[in-house]
Structure formats: C-alpha cells, structure tokens
Task: structure prediction
Amino acid sequence: MGLFDLFKRKRAIEASAATGEPRFHHYALAHVALRQIALHDPLLYLSELASSEVAEFLASVLDDVCRLSDEPRRAPPFTAADLKVHCVRAVGFPCGIVEMPQPLGTTEAYYTALVLLVREDAESTEPESAPARYFTLEKGFSLDGISRTTFAEWTMSSHLNYGDGSAPTLDAFVAQVSEAVAG
Result:
C-alpha cells in the first residue's frame, strides 16, 4: 500500500478510532512511511536512525504523514519526540528499532525493526541491493478481550502476519526478530 492509498482509508480509520481501529498517523508512520524509506534504502535508513540528527529525520517523516491528512488542522496524537530509537543487533546483523507511542487501536505498532542482512566485514553494498527485512510488533485483537500482540513482516508490497507476538518489551521484540532472521 502506497502513501497515497492511505488517503482513501483515512476517514474510515479516524472515524473508527473509538472502536479500536488504528489511528491514521500512528498506522501510516509505522506501516507505510518508515517501511517505504527503510526498504527502499536500508543503509541510509539505518544511518539516519544512528545519527545525531535522528530527531529531525523522524520529525520530517511525521510531517510527511501529516500532509496526507485531509484535515491539516488535526495534529497527530503524538510528536516525533515521543518516538524512541534503539540501534541493536539481531543475530549479529545491524538492526534499527523505532519504538512507537503506546498503541490504542488494533494493528497500531509497538515497535518497528529494520534488519540489514549484511555483516560488518562484508564488502560494500549498493543501497538498492542491500538485503533487509522490516518487522512490526502490533497491538492484536482477541475475541475474549485479553490483550495480545501480533508479529508481522512487511515487504514493499505485502504484509505477512506471523501470528502471536512477543510481550511488548524491547528485549522480547529483539529476541523475536532475531529468531525470525535466524530462521
């Protein structure tokens, strides 16, 4: 789904926020904007997350998401300052994690992760050919009302739902991402 495809869903998403559906800004940032940037140029994405200008980078991406809203006076329910970045390793591979504000609606993300499948000692890689994987830990849905998470992976064109996710903690998410990459 492209950024502009979200325009069509925007009103329905915001109108249904009270019923547990995802909020536009939260969903669009984690599932579309960050994913597209990350998978288009994973080397640049990870370097932005690790840079001293990460706050400006995230603010710029969130501003782009806000421009998609057909209600420009409506601010997102969070700011870029509410996002936290963690640069870690997933089974030895560089991994950039964005911790999102607390999700409220189903499919809103707790975390996103881009894993660059290149070892430090590898020869230089072109951005377009750098293999990478993009994961999300999402607020899940259950019929019995018990809270659950869903672990998913995105490609440029599809969403792969892997079922139950880890606890919504950084360590548990990194462990689940590592298991998926190793596996």
Strands lie at 84-90, 93-99, 109-116, 132-139, 149-154, 159-164.
